[in-house]
Amino acid sequence: MMDDDPQALMESYLEAIDAGGPSELQSDECLSELLVNESENEFNSTGNSNSTPNSAPPPAKRLILSRECSAAMSLRKRSYGYHLTHKLLFYIVLARQRFANVDRAFVADGQRTLCEQILHESDLIARFDFPDLFRDLFMEQVLLCALADAPLLEFTNPAWLGAIVSWQNGEGCFKYYGEEGDGVIGPNALTTHCSTHMSGVGAALLGLFARLQLVQQRE
């Protein structure tokens, strides 16, 4: 994807978008490994009968990650599309768990590296005027990179936010317009007018940007 010709870039992107990892299943399993570790932290701390409100907190839990997840989430392996955003989500959750044996600087650098890669994809999608096929992915890219520990300013672009807001339909939802049954009244109003994943990402994204604006106004 090094060609400067937009059409050639898009063709290369379409060929590469399914490349890399993690898969959706791997992403779920690896996130579970992080959350199980955190759950054990909470269980161990609350299960200590000798603890008091003023006692020192228990030592941080060490992360035990399977070889499969270590390989799937490796920064040395290039990913594209949803594989790339799912990898970023893993690093965002990892940063918030504060495991004793995880270097926070490494995790922060990993987030930045992934968002720099994602930015190339987001820019390409924007240059093609946000094709319907890529809108859900674009929203996920912007949301996760805006949530990263040190977000790139490009992901708070007002023009990008304005474009995303314009994709809402009359019901306030986001929907893939290629989906069968769009606009056809059915027994489930949610699926009739909304794509659950796209609308969930959209709601989270709009809430995040509202929060960022409030923070900026207070500064």
Provide a compact summary of the structure.
With 219 residues, this protein is mostly helical.
Q: What does this 3D model show about the protein?
A:
Pfam families: DUF4735 (PF15882). This protein is an all-alpha fold. It has one domain. The chain has nine helices and no strands. The radius of gyration is 20 Å and the shape is globular. The chain starts with 5 loop residues before the first helix and ends with a helix. 25% of the residues are buried. About 5% of the residues have low confidence.
SSE map:
Elements: H1 6-16, H2 24-46, H3 67-72, H4 81-97, H5 104-127, H6 132-147, H7 158-166, H8 189-193, H9 196-218
Helix pairs in contact: 1-5, 2-4, 4-5, 4-6, 5-6, 6-9
Strand segment tally: 0
Cα gyration radius (Å): 20 Å
Give the mean pLDDT: 84
Helix content: 55-70%
Q: What is the H/E string? A: HHHHHHHHH
Outline: globular
Instruction: Enumerate how many helices there are, as a single number.
Output: 9
Structural class based on helices, strands and sheet pairing: mainly alpha
Low-confidence stretches: 39-49
Could you give a short account of the major beta sheet? none
Termini separation comes to 40 Å
Q: Provide the number of structural domains.
A: 1
* Strand coverage percent: under 5%
Protein name: AGAP008238-PA
InterPro entries: DUF4735
Biased composition (Low complexity): 41-54
Region (Disordered): 41-60
Label this structure with key terms:
single chain, 219 residues, mainly alpha
